[in-house]
Amino acid sequence: MKPDAMTEYFEKISGSLKYKEEYESTKRKIEELNKEIEKNVSKLNNLKGDKRKLKQMKQNNEEFKKLSDNLDNLELKIQLLEFL
């Protein structure tokens, strides 16, 4: 007897054939859900990367503003010193 035929025979004897369709349907749903999970995990990782980049850009902007303000203050002091 071939392995597939034996499997089918045991399925008939055990009564598991009546659950085979439900099993296959559930298995397909699980596979679809796993694909969806993988897709969402990938999106999440991309968003985390974007968040890190934006955080770095924010820090760079804050540092630039500080340095720019400092430069403005120094230029003002220079002008005051030149005036005196």
Main pleated-sheet profile: none
Proportion of residues in β-strands: under 5%
Helix content: over 70%
Low-confidence segments: none
Domain tally = 1
Rg estimate, integer Å: 34 Å
Distance between the termini: 109 Å
Summed up, the helix count is 2
Q: H/E series, N to C?
A: HH
Shape: rod-shaped
Oligomer: single chain
Tally the beta strands.
Answer: 0
- Averaged pLDDT, please? 92
Query: What is the structural class?
Result: mainly alpha
Key words describing this protein structure:
single chain; 84 residues; mainly alpha
Question: If you had to describe this structure to a student in words, what would you say it looks like?
Answer:
- The longest helix has 67 residues, at 17-83.
- The chain has two helices and no strands.
- The N and C termini lie far apart (109 Å).
- It has one domain (3-83).
- It is rod-shaped and about 110 Å long.
- With 84 residues, the protein is an all-alpha fold.
List the helices and strands and how they pair.
Layout: H1 3-14, H2 17-83
Compact description:
The chain has 84 residues and is mainly alpha-helical. It has helices spanning 3-14, 17-83.
